[in-house]
Amino acid sequence: MASDLQKRMFAELARKEIFEAAKQSAYEYADSALTRRVYPSDKNIRDLGRFVEDLPEEGCDGVEIVRQLHRYGSPATVASTGGRYFGLVNGGAIPTALGARWLADFWDQNSALYKTSPITATLEEVCERWLRQIFGLPPQVVAGFVSGTSTAILCGLAAGRYRVFQNQGWDINAKGFAGAPRIRVVTGRQVHGTVIKAVALLGMGVENIEWVDTDDQGRILPDRMPELDDGTILIVQAGNVNSGSFDRFEPLGTRAKAANAWVHIDGAFGLWAAGSPRLSHLTKGIEAADSWSVDGHKTLNTPYDSGIVLCRDKAALVSALQASGSYIVYGENRDGMLYTPEMSRRARAIELWASLKYLGRRGLDELVYGLHERAAQMSDELRADGFGTLNEAVFNQVLVACESDALTEKTIDYIQESGECWAGGAKWQGRSVIRISVCSWATTEQDVSRSVQAFVDARAKARRVK
Ligand SMILES: *Cc1c(COP(=O)(O)O)cnc(C)c1O
């Protein structure tokens, strides 16, 4: 006997009305995201109040729920899948990846183990191999598919922590920190905030970080590096989150290897430079590291929830992350949870696989180099219009400023208010800057020029109102 609730849901599965409503809404959204305001209007945001209510006693109709989401949710989204959103390092969504994800959502696989999802385990293994090929990493490198680079960094540093403690004859998993030998963390002053968070979460202590000075692009100055040893984790980056600059991996890697230090490269968006022969000079030498963190959901334009930790030292990664329990059946085949902190996970490798298969090597080059070309165009056009450029647009990031911090900050407000495009602010070398990240496949040359015009108009308005 089926309960009333079960009867309702079986009927909904059979009738497909909910899915049809979702499909129709999604299609409308996809079209409008290219042309609508980039940031929601004040009214759109006020309308979100409609979602704020007490948990209803009686449940609601499914089609109505989807319609409500579309009516009030869709207009209040930030249109980062379009061509004129330049905040954070966001990335759009490749249509094929969205399609693959839709199907995968119906599968609702748990990717913990091969036993719980052979299809996911198979695609994870394929992606692992493809990623090694793209980034030029050695065959023993393994991959864990996690939610994003924050988690990937945590995993890479957990593996590093395990290994450098082991080098000192200390099992950190078993013994913890009480009485532990000292280990060191060395990184550049321009490291991403999520690295600092991971250092804190792993108990290594933010105040213990040995900071290395950086140049005007945010790159570690190799001659400022302290001596390294086998109790040290060195963290470098492929793609500074503001300037897009890359550390010089060859000299740093050589020194770290000679000292048997652990090297982690945070390449959340920048590691993909390796996917374009025209940009791969930026990632030269990355193969010498021990662990790497990278996102699918930024430069590669997979939908969200796609980060990857790569690690040369499988034993260290697995030792740092492995769980046990009598009901967990590790097998001969790939068991994804060995390489991730989570146990149950959605099958995120499916969109990653679909994106890479869709692009191929040639498409990957076109995507990645295209982002660089649009960024270079943005930098050139803004300079021609009198904005000061503060970085070399080596990858996809552009930093510009007006004559004064006050004017820059006001200009940012007016850019954001315009709805024409969206860019955020940052501090760079002590100055307020406008921070532009070109990372959606959908950004065209026209989008860049139109956005530059919005910058010029916003600055003119800021000057008038001053
Ligand atoms: C975005 C980013 C992160 C954090 O990645 P999430 O996917 O947002 O967790 C870490 N480092 C760099 C350089 C980044 O750009």
Helix content: 40-55%
Q: How large is the share of residues in beta strands?
A: 5-15%
Sheet bearing the most strands, described? 7 strands, mixed
Task: List the domain count as a whole number.
Answer: 3
Uncertain residue ranges: none
Bound molecules: pyridoxal-5'-phosphate
Question: Would you spell out the secondary-structure blueprint of this structure?
Answer:
Elements lengths: L3 H12 L1 H16 L9 H5 L15 H12 L21 H13 L10 H18 L6 E5 L2 H19 L4 H4 L8 E5 L4 H9 L7 E4 L19 E6 L11 H11 L2 E5 L24 E5 L11 E5 L2 H8 L27 H36 L3 E2 L7 E5 L3 H14 L5 E5 L2 E7 L7 H21 L1
Parallel strand pairs: 2-3, 2-4, 4-5, 5-6
Antiparallel strand pairs: 1-7, 6-7, 8-9, 9-11, 10-11
Helix pairs in contact: 2-4, 5-12, 6-12, 7-9, 7-11, 12-14, 13-14
This protein binds pyridoxal-5'-phosphate.
The site of pyridoxal-5'-phosphate has 14 residues, from helix 7.
Task: Summarize the structure in words.
- By secondary structure, this protein is α/β, with parallel strands linked by helices.
- It has three domains: 4-74; 100-355, Type I PLP-dependent aspartate aminotransferase-like (Major domain) (Aspartate Aminotransferase, domain 2), CATH 3.40.640.10; 363-464, Aspartate Aminotransferase, domain 1, CATH 3.90.1150.
- 42% of the residues lie in helices and 12% in strands.
- The chain has 14 helices and eleven strands.
- It has a seven-stranded mixed sheet, with helices on both faces. The protein has a four-stranded antiparallel sheet with strand order 8-9-11-10.
- The chain is globular and about 60 Å long.
- The termini are far apart.
- The mean pLDDT is 97.
- Bound molecules: pyridoxal-5'-phosphate.
